[in-house]
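Could you please consider the sequence and fold appended to this message?
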Amino acid sequence: MLHSSSCLCDPVDHTQRRAIMAPCSLPLLALACLSLWVTAQPTWGDQDIPSMFRQIMDTVAELKAKSDLTASVLAMRERMESMEKELQALKDIPKVAFAASLGGNGLQKAGDFNKKLVYREVLTNVGGAYNVETGEFTAPVRGVYYIRFTANAPTDVTLSSMLYKNGGKVILAAHESPSGEGSDTASNGATLLLEEGDSLQMMLWANTQVWDNANHHSTFSGFLLFPMPQQLKQ
C-alpha cells in the first residue's frame, strides 16, 4: 500500500514552515527559491543555473537596498517628529515679563500699619501676569523667575520697600534709615522658584516712606527665566 507524504503545498504544515523560514536570511531564501525553480523546470540545463542564480541574487540585493532606504527614511521621520515636538514645547513656554513704577504720585507714606504699594505706570506686561489694579504679580506657571525692585525717598524719614510672597512672608527687603538732607535709593533682586498661582506684592512698612515721579525711580519688575515641571528638583 502506498502512503501519501506531505508536500510543500500541504496546508497543515504552513505554520511550522513559516516558523522555520522566519529567521532565514535573504541569500538563503534566494537559494531556496532557486532550488525550487530548478526542480520545477527540468528542461533547464546546467549552464543556465549560474545565470538564474545571479538574477535572483541581483533581485535580493535590490530588495535589500530598498529595505535599507526604507529604514533610513523611517529613522529620519522619527528625528523630524522629535524635533517638531521640541519646537512645539518651546512655543508652549509662556512669555512672562513685567515692569512698573509708582509713577508721578510723589511721596507715599505708611502710618502705623504696613501699606500695599501699587505700581500704576506699567512699562511692560507681557503675559498679563501683573495686575495694575492690585499691584500683585501672579506666577502663571511653576518656574524660576528673576524679580527686582528699586526704591527712592527723601532721607528725613526711613525708606522701605518689602517684597511679600502670598501675603505673609518677606522675601526681599530694601530699607534705609534717615541720613540727613537729600534722598536715598535702594534696590534688591533675586531668582525665585515660584509655584503656579504664587503671588508677589510690594509693601511699605509702617512709619516709612517711598517716592517716585515720571522718571521711574521706584520700580517693580520681573520675568520668567524658565519653567520648572514638577518632576524636576529645585
In short: The chain is about 30% helix and 35% strand. The helical segments are 14-21, 26-40, 49-92.
